[in-house]
Here is the input.
Amino acid sequence: VILCRLITFSAASLTTMSWRSSGSTNQDLVDRLRDNGLIKNDRIHAALSSVDRKNYCRKGSSPYNDSPQSIGHGATISAPHMHAWCLELLVDHLKPGMKALDVGSGSGYLTAAMAQMVGAEGMVVGVEHLPELVEFSESNVAKDSPELKSQISFHATDGRKGWEEHAPYNAIHVGAAAPEVPKPLLEQLAIGGRMIIPVARGGGGDQYLMQIDRKSELEYVEKSITGVRYVPLGDRGDYY
Here is the structure.
């Protein structure tokens, strides 16, 4: 049973601030995100300062621009302001020792930031439908933050299935849009945990960033945050 409590916020202020957040270095980018109010929590600022976005983007891209960047295979790394915003929504569920699932982990950037936040006693699982991006993620973490390798595991699988082996998760982040919230992800969310997922509803192409809190075995509270635009959540067969 999902109990719906729908509250929609305007993204106008977020958009206005976000495009002013680009920097010349990783620290400059992160500091500007904080100065513009997109990062409020010190733990998030520290995590993103420790993970250099350049090491998770392709050569020739603009890693310190606050905009999406191509990582190949038709995929992108989201704009830093979106990653910062999602971490703010999940911050109380990314405390030291907690477990997180990053669905559509792409180049591994947000996965690494989450691993910084849950610390050495925590764990983050990244799932991605393209094996090439799993390999890319693993090499990126090894280059940028090798100390995180024991805390992170990446897997090539259909993101809609999550990764049951290490469930339940205190935090689940989904970086691609689904027409409905996949049941396995709901089942893998810990009681007291939170999921952030873009959902495409209504058949008109509109997508909404949804916050889902699990209150008990059967009770979930769903909240609409804002309109967004993400690539579809699926497996390789949905793209090729």
Summary: Confidence is low (pLDDT under 50) at residues 5-16, 236-240. The chain is about 30% helix and 25% strand.
